[in-house]
Amino acid sequence: MAERPLATRRSLAALLAAVFAFLYIPIGVLVALSFNEGGLPTAWTGFSVKWYGALLSNGDILSAAGNTLIVGAVSTLIATVLGTLLALGIETRRRKGRALEALVFAPMIIPDIVLAIALLSFFSLLKLPMGLHTIIVSHVVFNLAFVSAVVRARLKTFDWSVAEASLDLGASAFTTFRRVTLPLILPAVVAGALLAFTLSIDEFIIAFFTAGAGRSSVTLPMQIFAMIRFGVTPEINALATLVMIVSVTALTLSQRLNKGVIAP
Amino acid sequence: MNASNARSTALMAPALAWLTALMVIPCGLILALGFFRRGIYGGIEYSFTLENFALLLDPLYAGIFLTSARIAGTATLIAVVIGYAAAYAIAAAPRHRQPLLLFLAVLPFWSNYLIRTYAWIVLLNREGLITQFLRMMGYEGEPPSLLYTEGAVIVGLVYNYLPFVILACYAPLSRLNPELAEASRDLGASAFTTFRRVILPMTLHGIAAGAVFVFVLSIGNFITPALLGGGRFQMIGNLIYAQFLTANDWPFGAALSMALIAIMLGLLTLQAMAAEKGAGERREVLDG
């Protein structure tokens, strides 16, 4: 498509610039305001990182951040193991049923609000006390689906003859997995884990419904939601900037490790 | 062979058990809950009824479904038009620049949904940047109320899901053989006819995938109407939320969830059918 007239190329470039402006101005404004000394959007009173300092002395935010890290780390760990095994199981299977595909795909498309209320009803019917542990097991549901999707994409181009060679040479199935298969698929496994971690630390609705009543299990997105409802404050701008940096870094890393799989 | 299938089952077992316990059974529970009565004190009375589904047709609730569909439909339409145009522009850029452009288009999608929505509160609120800008341009008097409007909800939805539409439309556009469009032009078709008769049909499945995604996520959305609509614009997601956390009518909330899932499955089925039909037609065009 290189033979376009100059005018067409220019208007396409202008269009793209407008779309990027739409996508980036809101985020850019937020980041800029987080460094505004006065903290108000009405006037720029000078560069400052004091709002970041204020975050560090806010106990609610710190404990919410701690909870989020616990939920993210534990659910990612469980989901990575289960999701990788699932991917290996499906891809070594001779016939893949439609029901199996639907079951594995479902957590990615089921509306959050539906899964959230389903889990809430389930836990309360079992009279299970809710807290961080119920958020963790709930997050594993969608996290394992995403990990297995990323690992499966890698396994589709995996050369199984390497694993067969190892088996032929007398290595056990476990040794073959540990020494041959796993090192080869490791980038995809790590990419899947990073994706799961980001999804988990950003997830709000399911955490909100499965956290129980206490303040002790408030996660960062829940804290942010509560703060936003009170209005715009410079602290939220600073917090939002930090959270965005973490997610974007983790996902960029995930992308690098796993070229070609663009993960929403 | 049998041994390998047994091993593959063993590998899948822990994940499938997890999904069964924490997705299939809870969703089955919701399915069952929809057929029970609401107890007097907000609990559940275990007697069979279809009342909850009849209530869905009540003008009040049917109205919320229609409002949700209107808001989600408008957001989908806008996102598809902008997203397709952006994807077209990316696919028309020099090959070596396309990966970077696509990456930049998708990057915002990777930041927290709450934060992306909050960014619009910063822009749209009464003392927000848009009001500031209007004042700078000499506007005087009451600041316009931009936040807590249907427009704000639509802008928020478009903003959040646009990257996905760009991604979905880019895939078929980038694979499009430029010779097809050239042939159409050589045979005397105008640029518009070429677009309508050649490019659009060949990329329709990307549009369908993007549109279904935006519509499904928008109609069940809870965060955007809550934050940008200020609770004034109830959508299905908010209604479900209310049944479980404030109104305490779980059976009706369950029935609402089922209706949402039914809409979603219906659209996904239509999209899959369109994709298959489209693939067949594309093969015909290419093979002769």
From TrEMBL, chain A:
<feature type="transmembrane region" description="Helical">
    <location>
        <begin position="12"/>
        <end position="35"/>
    </location>
</feature>
<feature type="transmembrane region" description="Helical">
    <location>
        <begin position="180"/>
        <end position="199"/>
    </location>
</feature>
<keyword id="KW-1133">Transmembrane helix</keyword>
<keyword id="KW-0812">Transmembrane</keyword>
<dbReference type="InterPro" id="IPR000515">
    <property type="entry name" value="MetI-like"/>
</dbReference>
<dbReference type="InterPro" id="IPR035906">
    <property type="entry name" value="MetI-like_sf"/>
</dbReference>
<feature type="transmembrane region" description="Helical">
    <location>
        <begin position="69"/>
        <end position="90"/>
    </location>
</feature>
<feature type="transmembrane region" description="Helical">
    <location>
        <begin position="102"/>
        <end position="126"/>
    </location>
</feature>
<dbReference type="InterPro" id="IPR051789">
    <property type="entry name" value="Bact_Polyamine_Transport"/>
</dbReference>
<keyword id="KW-1003">Cell membrane</keyword>
<keyword id="KW-0472">Membrane</keyword>
<keyword id="KW-0813">Transport</keyword>
<feature type="domain" description="ABC transmembrane type-1">
    <location>
        <begin position="65"/>
        <end position="254"/>
    </location>
</feature>
<comment type="similarity">
    <text>Belongs to the binding-protein-dependent transport system permease family. CysTW subfamily.</text>
</comment>
<protein>
    <submittedName>
        <fullName>ABC transporter permease</fullName>
    </submittedName>
</protein>
<dbReference type="Pfam" id="PF00528">
    <property type="entry name" value="BPD_transp_1"/>
</dbReference>
<feature type="transmembrane region" description="Helical">
    <location>
        <begin position="132"/>
        <end position="151"/>
    </location>
</feature>
Automatic annotation (TrEMBL), chain B:
<keyword id="KW-0813">Transport</keyword>
<feature type="transmembrane region" description="Helical">
    <location>
        <begin position="250"/>
        <end position="273"/>
    </location>
</feature>
<protein>
    <submittedName>
        <fullName>ABC transporter permease</fullName>
    </submittedName>
</protein>
<dbReference type="InterPro" id="IPR000515">
    <property type="entry name" value="MetI-like"/>
</dbReference>
<comment type="similarity">
    <text>Belongs to the binding-protein-dependent transport system permease family. CysTW subfamily.</text>
</comment>
<dbReference type="InterPro" id="IPR035906">
    <property type="entry name" value="MetI-like_sf"/>
</dbReference>
<dbReference type="Pfam" id="PF00528">
    <property type="entry name" value="BPD_transp_1"/>
</dbReference>
<keyword id="KW-1003">Cell membrane</keyword>
<keyword id="KW-0812">Transmembrane</keyword>
<feature type="domain" description="ABC transmembrane type-1">
    <location>
        <begin position="65"/>
        <end position="271"/>
    </location>
</feature>
<feature type="transmembrane region" description="Helical">
    <location>
        <begin position="72"/>
        <end position="93"/>
    </location>
</feature>
<feature type="transmembrane region" description="Helical">
    <location>
        <begin position="145"/>
        <end position="170"/>
    </location>
</feature>
<feature type="transmembrane region" description="Helical">
    <location>
        <begin position="100"/>
        <end position="125"/>
    </location>
</feature>
<feature type="transmembrane region" description="Helical">
    <location>
        <begin position="15"/>
        <end position="36"/>
    </location>
</feature>
<feature type="transmembrane region" description="Helical">
    <location>
        <begin position="206"/>
        <end position="230"/>
    </location>
</feature>
<feature type="transmembrane region" description="Helical">
    <location>
        <begin position="48"/>
        <end position="66"/>
    </location>
</feature>
<keyword id="KW-1133">Transmembrane helix</keyword>
<keyword id="KW-0472">Membrane</keyword>
